[in-house]
Amino acid sequence: MDKINLSGTIAVITIFISLFLSLFLITVKTAHKLSNRLFAFFLVLTVIDMSVNLGYSSDISLDARLFRSSVFFLQLPTFYLYVLSVCYSDFRLKPKHLVHIIPFLIANLILLPRFYTVDQASKISFLAKSSSMPEIQLNHIFIHIQIALYIIAAFMILKEAKKIYLENYAGASIESLNWLFQFTLALSGFYFIALLKNIFKFTEYPYISEWLKIGLFLFELLIISWYLYKALNNPTLFRNIDSKLKLVKNIIYEEKNSEPSAANENEYSEELLKLKKYMIDEKPFLNPSLTIQDVSDGIGIPVRDLSVLINHKLEQHFYDFVNTYRIEKAMDLLKDVTKNKLTILEILYDVGFNSKSSFNTAFKKHTGNTPTAYRKNL
């Protein structure tokens, strides 16, 4: 009884927080409305899925009960679309995305012959033997295959988005992408535990499944609370990238048939000198939201050529390239005895960073020391 009360209490708290976060995401003023709405829908689907395990189903028709269970097939597709919308600024929902509801439709179509279209007595008998019914077993297999495919797809999208970001942007959004990666990793852990729960449910140790269910409710509460904390503290958390941008390796691949001539090499050398002069004279790196497009506009070199120059010829991401200048500027300020009253926070903002963690990471990568340690050792 205590176990049931514990799981029910955790589930109710999680449902309340999820609905509160959904309301916040829908009503908050932001440029990322689609992303917020997709995640809000994901949370609502999660609430519906959780309600299946609460046991309050006496007033719900048998059809509605089983249909409610099939809603899970919409969760991962919604999360995948959410990841796409977060990563790419020009992402829009299109008719082609309806393909993601096919598993949900199939899961319900499978149940038509022996559940949805039969009489009440047959439905009761079906549910009583649900664990041994091939339709239910098949849907369980589909669910776990779907989880694996969508989680892998989400990680692939994030991996490519991060590469594109590093090659074309120099703001603080890399931390947002890292955080979304961590969130997806946490979801992966959650669904892995859910898989274990389902496995133990059909073994000689069903009590382990019950304890794992409580653990899942608690884990879900922690994940949702974590997201709520992030959302409330950073309502404009994500800055998307343009999906039309190409990875440099793809640009190089497209040009692999054209051998670089001496003239081209000379052109690269001239462009490199022009770029370095521009960075030193104009100091565009002081702009915390600097993009490769901004630099391209400033020196008159096409983005495509500039991207190849920095990311391929210099073998350095644009993100790291810009941060090198920022760190050099920060080092100058730390060495300047007339600036010794400036705090580390003031310095990082002065040189173009807008995040203490990203500044510390970049500074240690460049110098081997933290900014505070570097200043003390002078």
Short account of what is shown:
It comes from Pseudarcicella hirudinis. The chain has 378 residues and is an all-alpha fold.
Task: Characterize the main sheet.
Answer: none
CATH topology of the largest domain: Rhopdopsin 7-helix transmembrane proteins
> Which regions are unreliable across 5 or more consecutive residues at pLDDT < 50?
none
Output the structural class: mainly alpha
Number of helices: 17
Q: Distance between termini?
A: 65 Å
Beta-strand share of residues: under 5%
The strand count comes to 0
CATH class of the largest domain: Mainly Alpha
**Rg, Å, rounded:** 26 Å
Named CATH architecture of the largest domain? Up-down Bundle
What is the helix/strand order?
HHHHHHHHHHHHHHHHH
Name the average pLDDT.
84
Task: Tell me the count of domains.
Answer: 2
Shape: elongated
Percent of residues in helices comes to over 70%
Domain HTH araC/xylS-type: 270-377
Organism: Pseudarcicella hirudinis
Protein name: AraC-type DNA-binding protein
Transmembrane segments: 6-26, 38-58, 70-91, 98-116, 136-158, 179-199, 211-229
